[in-house]
Amino acid sequence: MRSLGLKLGIFKYLQEIFSAEAEAIFQGLEFARDLGLHRIIVEGDNKGVIVKINDQSLDFLEIGPKIRDIQIFVGFFTSCAFQFIGRNGNQPAHALATEGLKSSGSRFWVDDAAAKIQTLAAQDRRLL
């Protein structure tokens, strides 16, 4: 069964792109858990963050603690994989980020995502 859940949030307190990406992934994991999902694939267009999440060694950079939180949180899922996907390969995420720049707060969609994002997600699924 495929489910489409989207969360849009603005991280005004994070100034570094790596920190914002790691926080978005962490919040995405929380959202997936709250939806009751057990098997997930997390795609991100920041290769550095995805590599750090998949690497089990300690990271002493600023995002190290958040990366470790993500690695621990994976235990809530039966299956959880993190994959790098280029920005052009994930149009729904790009459309959601663009929408986020126009928004001032958090928004959630579960199986009733904005029409444009649903269309882009359907196109992405056809490529699998």
Produce the secondary structure layout.
Blueprint: E1 5-8, H1 17-34, E2 39-44, H2 47-54, H3 64-73, E3 79-84, H4 91-102, E4 107-110, H5 115-126
Parallel strand pairs: 2-3
Antiparallel strand pairs: 1-4
Helix pairs in contact: 1-3, 2-3, 4-5
What would you note in describing this structure?
This is RNase H type-1 domain-containing protein. InterPro entries: RNase_H-like_dom_plant (IPR044730), RNase_H-like_EbsB-rel (IPR052929), RNaseH-like_sf (IPR012337), RNaseH_domain (IPR002156), RNaseH_sf (IPR036397). The chain is α+β, with helices and mostly antiparallel strands and 128 residues long. It has a single domain, classed as Nucleotidyltransferase, domain 5, CATH 3.30.420. Helix content is 47%, strand content 16%. The chain has a two-stranded antiparallel ribbon with strand order 1-4. Helix 1 runs parallel beside helix 3, helix 2 crosses helix 3 and helix 4 packs antiparallel against helix 5. The longest helix is centred in the N-terminal third of the chain and has 18 residues. The radius of gyration is 14 Å and the shape is globular. The model has no long low-confidence stretch (mean pLDDT 75).
